[in-house]
Amino acid sequence: MNILLIRLREIGDVVFTTPAIRALRERFPDARLSYLVEPVALPVVAGNPHLTRVIVAPRTRGVRQAGRDLALGWQLRAARYDLVIDFHGGPRASWLAFATGAPRRIGYDVTGRSWMYTTRVARPRALRARHSVLNQWDLLEPLAIPPPDPAGCPTEMAAAPAAADTVARRLTDAGVTAAQPLIVVHVSAGNPFRRWPPDSFVALIERLAAPDPARRIILTAGPSDREAGSRIARAAIERLGPARQAALVCCGEFDLAELRALLERAALYVGGDSGPLHIAGTTAVPIVALYGPTLPARSFPWRDPALVTEHVDAGALPCRPCEQRHCVPGDFRCLTGVPAAAVAEAAERALARAARIPAGA
Question: 106-149 pLDDT, tens per residue?
Fold first, then answer.
């Protein structure tokens, strides 16, 4: 059987399809299994052992994009797929699924586009307290694939040995040793509605550095928010003062493969609901996840519950969750209502819990 999976756009959304990739390989062990992805999330699936091929859908603008998609559509049609599953459901993804001409095309029952699929699956528009892995898994139900278990079917991202070597060299050059607990704090999010205030990050860094002088903290930031990351680093260094500023380590930017390698080395990851959080979820690193307008029930790291994972949010608010287009109260209270002290306490709990887990468990 020749199968094509489609999931365009965001990193976290692609990460959340990886349990389905494993399940499809187990259901169809001899299938040729291909995955169509945009460049931003390519590293997530590039080394996936369950895939036969990864196809990149370039993303540009205007007429040039239409021309590229037309050429891509012909390429996909020539591959003669037997089954296509569109995990995305957007206009571009649904058209590409239709363009394959596959005799069976599974997608969401979306107004105006459902005719492009031969098998349609309901997708309620309401923001439900249901995990995104399960929402995407609904598309596998027509194939008689049972529901997933995060312990046995977690999210995955293959390790890249070259990235691990690069990260090890950069840490050594920065003076970080294996004996120093390394805390990775991701200070940005592609969506401004999910960005915790910079002052909160500065306060958190100060609290994380205080209990153990051996700790080393690395700040990471996405391409859309690197200047904000630099400002947070400068403010944190000033707050820490000469006696403690060695706790904050600067060793450049990390691409996705390098970030995953860095997290394999880390004692803790702290960050908001964005792609890097879900990259962290593909490793065993203890996690503290910050949630603003989104719900942990929808995007908690999908992995073995035995691994240490904490989350912090502002609690129940009448405007939460939201569509992240306009802050109705106007003060982003779902983010400003998450105090640095609460995040620091969660971090200490996570580190303490991880310390109690026997080595190799």
Answer: 999 998 999 999 999 998 777 778 999 999 999 999 999 999 99
pTM for the whole structure: 0.94
- What are the structural domains, with CATH classification, of the chain? 2-143 (3.40.50.2000), 161-356 (3.40.50.2000)
**Long-range contacts from 236-243, C-beta under 8 angstroms, 24+ separation:** 236/201, 236/202, 236/205, 236/206, 239/202, 239/203, 239/205, 239/206, 240/205, 240/206, 240/209
On the 0-12 / 13-18 / 19+ scale of CB atoms within 10 A, 17 is buried
What does the pLDDT look like over 146-183, one tens digit per residue? 999 999 999 999 999 999 999 999 999 999 999 999 99
Could you give the C-alpha distances from 149 to 32, 56, 275, in angstroms and in order?
Answer: 24, 29, 21
Tokens read off for 193: 């509605």
Rounded distance between C-alpha atoms, residue 293 and residue 284, angstroms: 26
Alpha-carbon gap, residue 148 to 303, rounded angstroms:
11
Backbone torsion region of residue 86, taken as left when φ is above 0, otherwise alpha when ψ lies between -120 and 50, otherwise beta:
beta
